[in-house]
Amino acid sequence: MTDNDRTGCIEAGILENALVMIAVLEKSGKIVAWNHAAETITGYPKDEVVGDTSVWKKLYPDAEYRNSVTARIAAILKEKNYFENFETTITTRSGESRIILWNTKEISGSGKKRVVTAGLDITKQKELDAFRESIVENANVLITVLGRNGEVLLWNTAAEEITGYLRAEAVGGREIWKRLYPDPAYRKSVTKKIVEIISSHRYFENLNTSVTTKTGETRIISWNTREIGSGTGRLAIAIGRDITEQKKAEEALVAYMTEMTMRMKQPVEIIRDNLRDVAGLMREGKITTEEAAMMLDGQVRNATQIAANVQEFQKAIAGKNQSIPEAYRKFLEGD
Known about the structure:
Elements: H1 3-17, E1 21-26, E2 31-34, H2 36-42, H3 46-49, H4 55-59, H5 63-79, E3 86-91, E4 97-109, E5 112-121, H6 123-138, E6 142-146, E7 152-155, H7 157-163, H8 167-170, H9 175-180, H10 184-201, E8 207-212, E9 218-228, E10 235-242, H11 244-284, H12 289-320, H13 326-333
Helix pairs in contact: 11-12, 12-13
């Protein structure tokens, strides 16, 4: 066996065992080679494909779509004799749709020009990307991906809804941060805090800041970040949870506790003093049992009124603040 024969065998082995679909075409589009991966991906065996051009109509059965693909290929080849990362959807023999990423290269041999076409099946990758995108877009938290210089690369639907700024207004630059933090002094303090945290931890958790929405409303956002990617491609993903209503509920509970403490202090002290007086008079024998009972009945009425006032105030607080957690709401409403 000559060196050329050995080389030819090696090349044939590589072609046949490659994990990507590889076809060798003549200028007319007639297929002269069709590897095992091409058979596996499309469902069409080599003996039905080689020496013919009809497989392309089978892979692209819809005439309108086939014509659009052909037109796009012609437009590309008009400028250069190859194409890269050209994405199309084929229909396999079983009727399944597969997304293929095509790359071609023109070769010459035996005085003939041929085209080597490599097709990478990216269907699973596309499905996974679509799944991830669906999760990001349907999440009820603000999600943004930032470049190395803080530029916004992704801005999900919740980010639009919370801030009022559309994706087109946020992606591609850093101006959105000046809009969300319009006060220079506050923006500087937030930036300083972030730098201090990242310098030691490379990420931050539950960092609360107040942003100003497009309508001028103030919202409290709890931020969490993580780095994604590696090397020069390292990015940061920031997730912001709108805790404005939660904070209002917490403030309402604090206000409730403060108000109730003030309201109950004096009447409880009065009951305490009255009970102390009754106890003292009884020890000294200055009042009868009936008189003591009447005085105690009075304190029971006072205590009952205090309990009624507390319950009424609790229900008012719970009704006014719908964001109060369910467990607290049941306690306040007396359920």
